[in-house]
Write a structure and sequence with these properties.
The structure is a single chain. The protein has about 80 residues and is of the alpha+beta class. It contains two helices and four strands; from the N terminus they run E-H-E-H-E-E. A four-stranded mixed beta sheet has the order 1-2-4-3, covered by helices on one side. The chain is globular.
C-alpha cells in the first residue's frame, strides 16, 4: 500500500477529477491519493466520482483558498 499526492491546484472542473482518475488508474487497491485543489467544486465532484467507481473518500479538508481530498483506491475494474 502506498500514498500519493496530486497537485490539481489552479485547475478548473473537470480537470481535478480527470487528473485523479488518470492517477488512480495506475494505482493498486488500498493505495491512497491526496488531491490538492483550488477549485472548491472538487469537494462534490471527486466524492461523486469515487462512489461511482468503487473508491472511498477517507478525508477532506477545506480552507479559504484550497481543498484536499484523500481517496482510497478500491477494487474497481472500470478504470
Amino acid at each position: 500500500m502506498s500514498h500519493h499526492e496530486l497537485d490539481a491546484r489552479r485547475m478548473l472542473c473537470p480537470m481535478p477529477v480527470i487528473k485523479t482518475q488518470n492517477l488512480v488508474a495506475t494505482l493498486k487497491p488500498g493505495d491512497t491519493v491526496e488531491v490538492f485543489c483550488t477549485d472548491h467544486g472538487a469537494l462534490n465532484d471527486i466524492p461523486a466520482w469515487s462512489r461511482i467507481n468503487g473508491h472511498e473518500v477517507i478525508a477532506s479538508h477545506e480552507s479559504d483558498s484550497e481543498v484536499s481530498i484523500t481517496v482510497r483506491v478500491g477494487d474497481s475494474d472500470d478504470e
